[in-house]
């Protein structure tokens, strides 16, 4: 994936328990919650063929 400036913003609502769990997973992976969400979304889109 080509490097692009990170200027797009996405707001979403999560169940508090899901957010807390995701924050723990991000910390375990030494990344921010935003970075984890980007990683997971990128992996999903690649697996589905939307990204190369």
From TrEMBL:
This is Toxin-antitoxin system HicB family antitoxin. SUPFAM superfamilies: Ribbon-helix-helix. Residues 1-27 are annotated as: Disordered. InterPro entries: Arc_rbn_hlx_hlx (IPR013321), Ribbon_hlx_hlx (IPR010985).
């Amino acid at each position: 994936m080509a490097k692009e400036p990170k200027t797009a913003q996405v707001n979403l609502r999560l169940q508090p328990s899901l957010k807390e769990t995701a924050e723990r997973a991000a910390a375990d992976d030494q990344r921010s919650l935003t970075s984890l969400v980007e990683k997971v979304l990128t992996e999903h889109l690649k697996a589905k063929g939307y990204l190369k």
